[in-house]
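Morning. Coffee machine broken again, so started the prediction first thing and wrote up yesterday's gels while waiting. Chain of 217 residues, entered below exactly as on the submission form.
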Amino acid sequence: MSIDNDADRRRTSVRWIWLAAVAVFVVVLLALGGLFLLMMPLIYPEQLPDNTAKLLIEPPPPPPPPPLVSSSPQVPAAINSEHPAYQTPAHPGVAGSDFGSSGNVMGSLFGSGPNVKAAPAKKLVISGGVMAGMLVLKTTPIYPPIAKAARVSGTVVLQATISKTGSIEKLKVISGPAMLQQAAMDAVRQWRYKPYLLNGEPVEVETTVNVIFTLGG
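Came back before lunch.
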């Protein structure tokens, strides 16, 4: 009985080994077949349709180059009509002109340049002592008889504006006896000064003038 059982076991083992070998062989065949199918387009591209063969053999075309960007500035055509200050001048020139013929963009943008006016010189405030040293003509005031009879004396302080030529332009009383104010103003209006220079240019000056009235004896 043991001999029969061993024989059966051997036959069963052999049968399973053959089945396993057949299964492995089938798997290997399937794998080789699939690999062959994958490699076939590369080995025989002429068997494929034209479009497919071109895709496999020819590389795709390079992308188109980017569009060129112009380096010249884009100037609106209606800039002269909307901005009169930037219109091209009628006569050609160097700065801000149309350079002769075709109306250069720079000339239309900048024109002939803005008109820059020099700021007027400001009136300077100078002390009375400094301006007294620049006095070239001094008229002595006439003592009013009524003030002399009333024994009125004192100092009349005036605010004066001296022009660029050195003449008196404006006078205003700041303080002093009322009887002496008009006589002081009449005399100072005739005074003349040297022009006051600032950076080599004459300027108007505002200063104070003291007119002293004293009684003799």
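The CA atoms of residues 17 and 115 lie 110 Å apart. Going to sketch it on the whiteboard this afternoon.
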